[in-house]
Design a protein that fits this description.
Layout (H helix, E strand, L loop, with lengths): L17 H12 L7 H12 L7 H13 L14
Helix pairs in contact: 1-2, 2-3
């Protein structure tokens, strides 16, 4: 994942897209309970309030990249809709 530094923004938005920051903050807010990619996707689209729609694949790819970078960890749970 290439990082672009946007000096027009503040905080995490200097290096992340808005949906990436939203999903990361949602994961952090869950604490030890954790969240599924589906929960993160639903939350991000809820925060956009219908003004935009982010694909579930975009959320999954971003969260996977954060795992690869060591910023997040995960436990794989199998099953339909997990």
């Amino acid at each position: 994942m290439g990082i672009v530094f946007d000096t027009r923004e503040d905080g995490l938005r200097t290096v992340m897209k808005d949906y990436q920051e939203m999903s990361l903050r949602f994961v952090w807010s869950s604490g030890e309970r954790g969240v599924s990619s589906s929960e993160a996707w639903l939350n991000v689209n809820k925060e956009f309030g219908g003004l935009s729609s982010i694909s579930r694949a975009s959320i999954i790819n971003f969260l996977n990249a954060m795992v690869d970078e060591g910023a997040l960890s995960y436990t794989e749970i199998t099953g339909k809709g997990a």
